[in-house]
Amino acid sequence: KELNGKTEMITPNQVEGSFASKIKQKAMGEYLSNVASTFLQYRDTMQYGSIDSIRVPFVEEAKKALQRASNEERTIFKQARKQQSQQSTATKNNTKSTTTNNLPLLPKSYVLATILLAIKGDHTSVPLPFGIVRQRDMVRALGRIVTDATVDDCLVGAELLMIPNVSAANIGGDGGGDGGDGSGDGGYGGLTEGDMLKSFPELVPLT
């Protein structure tokens, strides 16, 4: 290739590495698209949501921004899972102390999912200008992910975090799965509404 008037030779290893990167990027995009498509099937049950985005001029900055966001979200999810585990253990203990004919009414629980992605803005549509306030806003945002994630050379990086942890096979994907700490949820269910809003105060009710 030629850079600033100088010719630079590309080695076979560089070509092979670039090809492998493209294959990985394509697989990641298809996985993310499948996940978003699966979420769309449950659009009528979505009760809370939010969206946030930033613009940076270079791909390397986008990668760094994605990594920062990933570290922050993983920390929050780890704390929420710990709280969820403690709540589930307490609920199980309370259930054991009752008779089978007088079981306590279990609190309503929520499945929570965060999708982090870095995309090249000149290849895709811009984020929603007013964020998420209605179910159809969430549907629109997920619909963009479904299509944009598979555009050639569009997706820079992505990560999916969920509570409870769900394997890729159960959410319509073929790889990746939860990018968290890998500890799993030990069979526990979702978060209560109070715990969810305490851990993720940016969520707003969807109308």
Structural class: alpha+beta
User: The biggest beta sheet, please?
Assistant: 2 strands, antiparallel
What is the 3D shape?
A: globular
| Average pLDDT | 74
Annotation, overall tally of beta strands: 8
Secondary structure blueprint with pairings:
Layout: E1 2-3, E2 6-7, H1 12-40, E3 48-49, H2 59-96, E4 109-110, E5 112-119, H3 135-148, E6 155-163, E7 191-192, H4 193-199, E8 204-205
Antiparallel strand pairs: 1-2, 3-8, 4-7, 5-6
Helix pairs in contact: 1-3
Q: Can you walk me through this structure?
A:
The longest helix has 38 residues, at 59-96. With 207 residues, the chain is of the alpha+beta class. The chain is built from 4 helices and 8 strands, in the order ββαβαββαββαβ. It has a two-stranded antiparallel sheet with strand order 1-2. The chain has a two-stranded antiparallel sheet with strand order 3-8. A two-stranded antiparallel ribbon has the order 4-7.
